[in-house]
Structure formats: C-alpha cells, structure tokens
Design goal:
The chain is mostly helical. The chain contains two helices and two strands; from the N terminus they run H-E-H-E. A two-stranded parallel sheet has the order 1-2.
C-alpha cells in the first residue's frame, strides 16, 4: 500500500487532515520481504480479533508454518 507519486501522497494527506485533523503525518515505508509471523500466531491473533474466514493464501509470503 502507498503512493509512488509524492504529489498524490500529499494531496491525499491534505484531504485526510481536513477530515481527521493535522496530527496525521506522512511516512516512508520499507518493503518487507520474507516471513514475519508463524501461522499459529496469526491464527491466534485473528481469533482474538474475531476475524473469520481468513484467506491465508493471500499472505503466504509473510507467514511460516
């Protein structure tokens, strides 16, 4: 998620600040490559958050068995 065009990012920020306030900031994001979490931990997190029918195939590059 994010913007490649800085003008688009600043425009979106301006619109969001109009709705939510000036405390919102822009951040640069570093691409994450490789697993971040075990499937077990993710299942636990989803259960605690009440997430149902989670599709693990959509995020398989970020989980490890």
């Amino acid at each position: 998620m994010g913007f490649e065009d800085p003008a688009e990012a600043v425009s979106e920020l301006g619109q969001m600040r109009n709705q939510a306030g000036s405390h919102l900031k822009l951040y640069r994001v570093i691409l994450v490559e490789g697993p971040l979490v075990t499937r077990t931990d993710l299942e636990r997190c989803n259960e605690e958050a009440g997430v149902e029918d989670f599709d693990f195939t959509r995020i398989k590059e970020y989980i490890t068995e």
